[in-house]
């Protein structure tokens, strides 16, 4: 049995999804949440095998929520169910840690199949997005910091300005472990070795005052 949590800020959408999934004998809705903040509490008390996640919600949401989940629950698959069909949005979600992405106009059987595949450790991309993801690539000459997610860029700039990991965690209401994970990822993406390299990079690209 695949136990999942539905996360969407529209109650009518959650209700409709539960009706669709009730027809699948191997899928059980273990919980639901109306946003990222509520999801944190639900995850603390609910065992599940997959999170079915909307991208646009009030509060903690989108890439930031995916990154938080990937850092705090690295073994929990995330399947995005979104109204957006844009390649860059799907790409950012997948890079942040989502295992699959499909749109809300997908047929019910496609949704069920995607849940089964992602819960089983696979990846799923909506057919309407495959071409966009292949051809929507970063332009030539793209500098490393432009490849960072929104949260990684935020942490990068705070580190470059001299903030400690503990201070950043407090300012962004994140755990120290989560901030450390963001730092590790952004350092790897930008091919930086030390905090001094990070500051020099920020100054060289005029991202902070030297």
What features would you describe in this structure?
Helix content is 50%, strand content 13%. It has ten helices and six strands; from the N terminus they run βαβαβαβαβαβααααα. It has a six-stranded parallel sheet with strand order 2-1-3-4-5-6, sandwiched between helices. Helix 4 (87-96) crosses helix 6 (127-135). The longest helix is centred in the last third of the chain and has 14 residues, at 176-189. The mean pLDDT is 89.
Largest sheet: 6 strands, parallel
Quaternary organisation: single chain
Shape: elongated
User: Helix/strand-derived class?
Assistant: alpha/beta
What distance lies between the first and last C-alpha atoms, to the nearest angstrom?
Answer: 56 Å
Assess the beta-strand content as a share of residues.
Answer: 5-15%
Number of strands: 6
Spatial sequence of strands, sheet with the most strands:
2-1-3-4-5-6
DSSP helix fraction: 40-55%
Task: Specify the number of helices.
Answer: 10
Low-confidence stretches: none
Radius of gyration, in angstroms, nearest whole number: 18 Å
Query: Residue-averaged pLDDT, rounded?
Result: 89
Give, in order, the helices and strands: EHEHEHEHEHEHHHHH
């Amino acid at each position: 049995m695949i136990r999942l949590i539905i996360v969407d800020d529209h109650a009518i959408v959650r209700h409709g999804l539960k009706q669709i999934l009730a027809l699948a004998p191997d899928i059980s809705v273990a919980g639901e949440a109306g946003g990222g903040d509520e999801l944190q509490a639900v995850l603390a008390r609910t065992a599940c095998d997959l999170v079915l996640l909307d991208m646009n919600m009030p509060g903690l949401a989108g890439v930031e929520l995916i990154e938080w989940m990937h850092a705090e629950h690295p073994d929990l698959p995330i399947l995005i169910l979104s109204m957006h069909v844009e390649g860059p949005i799907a790409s950012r979600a997948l890079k942040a840690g989502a295992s699959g992405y499909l749109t809300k106009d997908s047929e019910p059987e496609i949704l069920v199949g995607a849940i089964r595949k992602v819960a089983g450790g696979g990846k799923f991309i909506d057919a309407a997005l495959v071409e966009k993801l292949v051809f929507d690539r970063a332009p030539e000459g793209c500098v490393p910091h432009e490849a960072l997610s929104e949260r990684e860029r935020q942490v990068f700039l705070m580190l470059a300005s001299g903030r400690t990991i503990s201070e950043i965690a407090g300012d962004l209401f994140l755990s120290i472990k989560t901030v450390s994970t963001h730092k590790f990822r952004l350092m790897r993406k930008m091919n930086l070795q030390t905090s001094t390299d990070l500051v020099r990079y920020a100054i060289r690209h005029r991202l902070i005052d030297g």
